[in-house]
Amino acid sequence: MLSPNADLQTRPALDTDEARLLVETGFLALSRGKVGEAEAIFHAVLAARPGEEAGHLGLAQLALLLGDTERALRALSEAPDTAAVLAFRGMALARRGDAAGARSLLARAAADPDVGALARAVLDSL
């Protein structure tokens, strides 16, 4: 017999819609200059769903906005290799001056329907 808390034990801390809402809230906070609040939100998403890209990407974008490419790369170091993660790693490498590394990652992301345009734009600027 399952315990009354069985669903709580097997269900992720945040479901997909909840995580998406939190990430959007983090980006809204970031767009309004509320860096500390955005960072706290992205860390919460990362803690709740560590195997997904959202928290990693949020922290990386925050770091890039602040001009801290090494911090952005650290935020992405344990993220899954999705096209978005590859694109943002490529952007961070480009900002660090590693054009060859950036091109390699951005070329892999360029065909993706969601981030391909961004990856191609950064590639074109290198």
From TrEMBL:
Annotated InterPro entries: TPR-like_helical_dom_sf
Record Pfam families: TPR_19 (PF14559)
Protein name (record): Tetratricopeptide repeat protein
Species whose genome carries this gene: Alsobacter ponti
